[in-house]
Amino acid sequence: VVHTYAGICIEKLLTVKDKNGHGQSAPRYDPASMRASLLQVVPPVLQIIAASKGIPMNEYLMRCIARIFSFLKQQGAETGLQTLRPLSAILIAMAANPSNPVFNHNLFEAIASIVKVCVPSQPDAVEAALLPSLGQILERNVADFLPYTFQILGLLLDATPSVKPLYQELFARLLSPDLWRSQANVPGLIRLFRAYFTRHAVFGELLRGHLQGILERFQFVLCNRKTESSAFELLNAMYLHLPLEFYQQHYKTLLTVMLTRLQSSKSPRLQRDFVVSCSLFVHRHPSNVFPAMLGEIQAGLLSNLLGSIWLTVTKMTLRLDERKVCTLALGKLMAVEEVRRNPQLMTGCCAGLVSLMGLVQPQNTLTAEDGSDDEAPPMDGGAGL
Prior knowledge:
This protein is an all-alpha fold and 385 residues long. The chain has 19 helices and 2 strands. Helix content is 69%, strand content 2%.
């Protein structure tokens, strides 16, 4: 019990913040000055956890480990790398009977904190410590650990200089419908696919061969209101990291699927995600592609879409990065002849630009409750890093 309180104390102390001279909150303690003291704590805490002394699967001690490495960052990189192997051993032991979800969550948080610090400089060493245990989790299909495993693999794949066979072998399995039916898996799967997209020079053949399956998973996730925002995260990752030729032949079908979903749901959040995602596409690719695709679906669709949905979204509360990409995209669309010849629409677009640039107060603020018009039940509970 005493070491549990000690772990809680350390974890809380590292979160303490004070106001600085500019009135901003800043951590009270400096990682460089705390490094030696904190790293001395790690080995005995790991020994207590591994030996199940006191409280078995002590979630507070594991949270303490996670907090130490997230606080120290680069200051704890060397010790963090040495800590991965004992954490990996604990991970395999827990995989046999994952009965404490809070402990397991903190375990993966600790691993993720170390991976983020160590993998940029020592990716091979990190992979050597983790890939065997992650491979076992995938082989055993440990459902409670899969969401975390996908996210850790995404971090590793982003940084590894040489792609290991595991990533090639895993790709087709990631498209299994059973994995996507679990809501808990979706963020991790999308995170991992984003890593595949960024390495398209290596995985080009795999991606081209399975793109139809990827877009089918997009449609599956889009059709559930609990995961529809995640569907656009997958799409945005594709726009950001894949060349247009990878998916251009599928883009008309993709737009049709999104427009059909918009017709069946009046959710402001869905409208926002759609407009932001399409804005990203317009910004990243030649300005004629998006209007031409809409014209193939239905004549005059661009004008209808701008007037009925797009300009409404410009008046919503958006993040700064969303406002920027929507501003750039709307400017490009205003140069399209169909829009230029419509004075009323051009006036609306100008008003939209004014809103996006923050020159007037947004009229609509989205809340977490928006988008509850179609009552699809949640598929599963879950967690993610």
